Amino acid sequence: MSKGFPKDFLWGGAVAAHQLEGGWQEGSKGLSVADVMTVGSSTSYRSITEGIVDGEYYPNHEAIDFYHKYKEDIALFKEMGFKCFRTSIAWTRIFPNGDETEPNEEGLQFYDDLFDECLKNGIEPVVTLSHFELPYHLVTEYGGFRNRKLIDFFVRFATVCFKRYKDKVKYWMTFNEINNQANYNEDFAPFTNSGIYYKEGDNREEIMYQAAHNELVASARAVKIAKEINPDFEIGCMIAMCPIYPATCNPKDILMAQKAMELRYYFTDVHVHGFYPQYILNNWERKGISVEFTEQDKKDLLDGTVDYIGFSYYMSFAIKHNGSDSYYDYDESKDLVKNPYVQASDWGWQIDPEGLRYSLNWFQDMYNKPMFIVENGFGAYDKVEEDGSIHDEYRIEYLKAHIEQMKLAVVEDGVDLMGYTPWGCIDLVSAGTGEMEKRYGFIYVDKDNKGEGSLDRAKKDSFYWYKDVIESNGENL
Ligand code: P53
């Protein structure tokens, strides 16, 4: 039995290109889905506009200007002792429209420089290929991932990246939080995951299954090609893990929770096992859902299974039986109930550290694969004191409680965990709301929800705390 975290445990931090880089038109970058999203609030998603509309504010256009400031930011990550840094490659820097045959050299060069800077500072890059930043042209021209042509576009993009960075990047993930779109009755996840706008009368469920299928096939083909380019690559999937608990021990609630988990997490089964679980195929048949699924797809899925499960963990959900005759009508936008045993953040996200231990064990039991917690964190309002200090003890408390549970899972339960990269290690634009003031960072960035501020960086109390956590390999919490 191990006493603590393994020696080579990957402590670090996580971000995504569109949420921090800015430079939305620099280096011949194309327009992405994130570039047409405005600001929302703690109670509303952001709106999606048709192209760029005059007079609207788009927070990702400048974000925190990491595009120009990355050297100074990486120096701060190094000071905290990061072993790794998770970011994404903005697809639109490499293929501005997404359907070109030749990549954009300026974009490729930017990531060469960024990864070199990480490596020079002893920080290993961990890279997501598609993190809510699909080329917008693929939405307007092809209808996003509902169209099978996007499989080839993604595979081309992935192949270019694998070849170019084969000696700089070892850890990869294909599609960020691919399972968010299980919430297909709202408009946010289908757009950010897959570039899908639903129209009146669309069969949302069927379209979601097709888009997700196309992504699962694209991911598998990419994994296979990656291994031919460098057999040492480690390629993961990326799942948004919000375990769904039954609200009571009423057998109907238990079954409802079990089926909701299946509908929200079958994506992992396909990534890990290379085929669909029977309950999904039966669900399609019962509802008359038709998914274009070729013999070649079947082969590709089996040939491109992932090496590890990357996942985000912020919160848990709870559910009651919704009264429907079928347990296959889980509607994430309606069926979840409040868990009376846990508190929630100012954005209503339920805080549940034990849920992280539960999730690690659930994944271990289900899939028996190495895991990587590639996001976890507390979005909160921070206050800058007169002397410039930022006392974010609530964030320290959240992270400490989660790391304690993660440690129990490793030490007592023996789960196979590779690393931990808290989300938004430097303040950045929220994906869900577009706010700057929903902050996750150890590093404060002076910018508000309207886009005003100096963009200056400052260390929060959590900065010094996390440095000590890493230095002690998780012993000093
Ligand atoms: P924000 C929903 C539920 C769980 C994770 O989210 C989610 C979302 C989408 O909002 O997204 C992930 O910024 C995502 C990151 C995102 C982070 O969690 O809405 O991978 O891009 O920023 C936090 O507070």
UniProtKB/TrEMBL annotation:
Transmembrane segments: none annotated. GO terms for cellular component: cytosol. Keywords: Glycosidase, Hydrolase. GO terms for biological process: carbohydrate catabolic process. SUPFAM superfamilies: (Trans)glycosidases. NCBIfam families: PRK09589.1, PRK15014.1. This is 6-phospho-beta-glucosidase. It comes from Floricoccus penangensis.
